[in-house]
Amino acid sequence: MVIEYSGIVIRSVLTDKWEKFYDGKGIDGKGIGYYMFHMDDFDVVDATTHGNAARFINHSCEPNCFSRVIHVEGQKHIVIFALRRILHGEELTYDYEFPIEDASNKLPCNCGAKRCRRFLN
Fold first, then answer.
1. What's this model's pTM, rounded to 2 decimal places?
2. 52-72 per-position pLDDT tens digit
3. Cα(83)–Cα(65) distance, integer angstroms
4. Are strands 93-94 and 58-59 parallel, antiparallel or unpaired?
5. In whole angstroms, what separates CA 27 from the centre of its chain?
6. What is the pLDDT of residue 31?
Protein backbone atom coordinates (compact mmCIF):
# COMPACT_ATOMS: atom_id res chain seq x y z
CA MET A 1 0.00 0.00 0.00
CA VAL A 2 1.27 3.45 -0.95
CA ILE A 3 -1.56 5.82 -0.03
CA GLU A 4 -5.33 6.04 0.30
CA TYR A 5 -7.12 8.41 -2.09
CA SER A 6 -9.15 10.55 0.28
CA GLY A 7 -11.77 13.24 -0.07
CA ILE A 8 -15.51 13.69 0.24
CA VAL A 9 -17.70 10.77 -0.88
CA ILE A 10 -20.54 11.99 -3.09
CA ARG A 11 -23.14 10.24 -5.23
CA SER A 12 -22.01 9.90 -8.84
CA VAL A 13 -25.19 11.57 -10.09
CA LEU A 14 -24.05 14.78 -8.35
CA THR A 15 -20.65 15.15 -10.03
CA ASP A 16 -21.95 17.51 -12.75
CA LYS A 17 -23.53 19.76 -10.11
CA TRP A 18 -20.30 19.84 -8.08
CA GLU A 19 -18.28 20.68 -11.20
CA LYS A 20 -20.64 23.59 -11.97
CA PHE A 21 -20.29 24.74 -8.36
CA TYR A 22 -16.48 24.64 -8.69
CA ASP A 23 -16.66 26.53 -11.99
CA GLY A 24 -18.73 29.21 -10.24
CA LYS A 25 -16.05 29.50 -7.57
CA GLY A 26 -13.32 29.76 -10.23
CA ILE A 27 -11.61 26.58 -9.09
CA ASP A 28 -11.21 25.02 -12.55
CA GLY A 29 -10.45 28.43 -14.05
CA LYS A 30 -7.23 28.50 -12.03
CA GLY A 31 -5.96 25.41 -13.84
CA ILE A 32 -6.44 23.23 -10.77
CA GLY A 33 -9.03 20.98 -12.36
CA TYR A 34 -11.30 18.51 -10.62
CA TYR A 35 -10.09 15.51 -8.67
CA MET A 36 -12.91 12.98 -8.72
CA PHE A 37 -12.32 9.24 -8.51
CA HIS A 38 -15.25 6.90 -9.26
CA MET A 39 -15.38 4.10 -6.72
CA ASP A 40 -18.25 2.37 -8.53
CA ASP A 41 -21.43 3.29 -10.41
CA PHE A 42 -22.85 5.03 -7.34
CA ASP A 43 -20.09 6.74 -5.35
CA VAL A 44 -17.28 9.15 -6.19
CA VAL A 45 -14.48 10.45 -3.98
CA ASP A 46 -14.16 14.18 -4.62
CA ALA A 47 -10.66 15.29 -3.58
CA THR A 48 -10.86 18.69 -5.30
CA THR A 49 -10.88 20.75 -2.11
CA HIS A 50 -10.58 18.16 0.68
CA GLY A 51 -8.19 15.57 -0.69
CA ASN A 52 -4.69 14.44 0.13
CA ALA A 53 -1.54 14.06 -1.97
CA ALA A 54 -2.97 11.00 -3.76
CA ARG A 55 -4.98 13.33 -5.99
CA PHE A 56 -1.74 14.50 -7.62
CA ILE A 57 -0.64 11.03 -8.79
CA ASN A 58 -0.52 11.14 -12.57
CA HIS A 59 -1.75 8.65 -15.14
CA SER A 60 0.64 6.44 -17.07
CA CYS A 61 0.05 3.75 -19.67
CA GLU A 62 3.00 1.92 -18.03
CA PRO A 63 2.38 2.69 -14.34
CA ASN A 64 4.32 1.71 -11.23
CA CYS A 65 1.14 1.59 -9.09
CA PHE A 66 -2.47 0.48 -9.38
CA SER A 67 -5.68 1.47 -7.63
CA ARG A 68 -8.28 -0.72 -5.96
CA VAL A 69 -11.49 -0.11 -4.10
CA ILE A 70 -11.35 -2.13 -0.91
CA HIS A 71 -13.93 -2.67 1.83
CA VAL A 72 -12.98 -2.17 5.46
CA GLU A 73 -15.66 -2.69 8.10
CA GLY A 74 -18.41 -2.01 5.56
CA GLN A 75 -16.81 1.18 4.19
CA LYS A 76 -15.33 1.57 0.71
CA HIS A 77 -11.82 3.01 0.37
CA ILE A 78 -9.67 3.72 -2.69
CA VAL A 79 -6.12 2.57 -2.12
CA ILE A 80 -3.06 2.99 -4.34
CA PHE A 81 -0.71 -0.02 -4.28
CA ALA A 82 2.79 -0.39 -5.73
CA LEU A 83 3.18 -2.76 -8.68
CA ARG A 84 6.90 -3.06 -7.99
CA ARG A 85 9.64 -1.54 -5.89
CA ILE A 86 9.54 2.24 -6.33
CA LEU A 87 12.84 4.04 -6.30
CA HIS A 88 13.51 7.14 -4.21
CA GLY A 89 12.48 10.22 -6.21
CA GLU A 90 10.52 8.22 -8.80
CA GLU A 91 7.14 9.67 -9.77
CA LEU A 92 4.14 7.63 -8.69
CA THR A 93 1.73 6.77 -11.52
CA TYR A 94 -1.27 4.55 -12.14
CA ASP A 95 -3.59 3.85 -15.06
CA TYR A 96 -6.72 5.97 -14.61
CA GLU A 97 -8.70 3.33 -16.54
CA PHE A 98 -11.19 5.87 -17.91
CA PRO A 99 -14.05 4.31 -19.90
CA ILE A 100 -13.55 4.13 -23.68
CA GLU A 101 -15.21 7.04 -25.51
CA ASP A 102 -15.86 7.85 -29.14
CA ALA A 103 -13.32 9.86 -31.12
CA SER A 104 -14.98 13.22 -30.42
CA ASN A 105 -14.54 12.84 -26.64
CA LYS A 106 -11.01 11.43 -26.52
CA LEU A 107 -8.64 12.87 -23.90
CA PRO A 108 -5.03 12.93 -25.14
CA CYS A 109 -2.43 11.13 -23.05
CA ASN A 110 0.96 12.72 -22.54
CA CYS A 111 2.47 10.14 -20.21
CA GLY A 112 5.54 9.57 -22.37
CA ALA A 113 5.56 5.80 -21.89
CA LYS A 114 7.08 3.66 -24.64
CA ARG A 115 3.74 1.88 -25.10
CA CYS A 116 1.50 4.91 -24.59
CA ARG A 117 -2.08 4.35 -25.82
CA ARG A 118 -2.22 8.05 -26.86
CA PHE A 119 -5.56 8.55 -25.07
CA LEU A 120 -6.75 8.34 -21.46
CA ASN A 121 -10.10 7.05 -22.65
1. 0.86
2. 999 999 999 999 999 999 999
3. 5
4. parallel
5. 17
6. 56
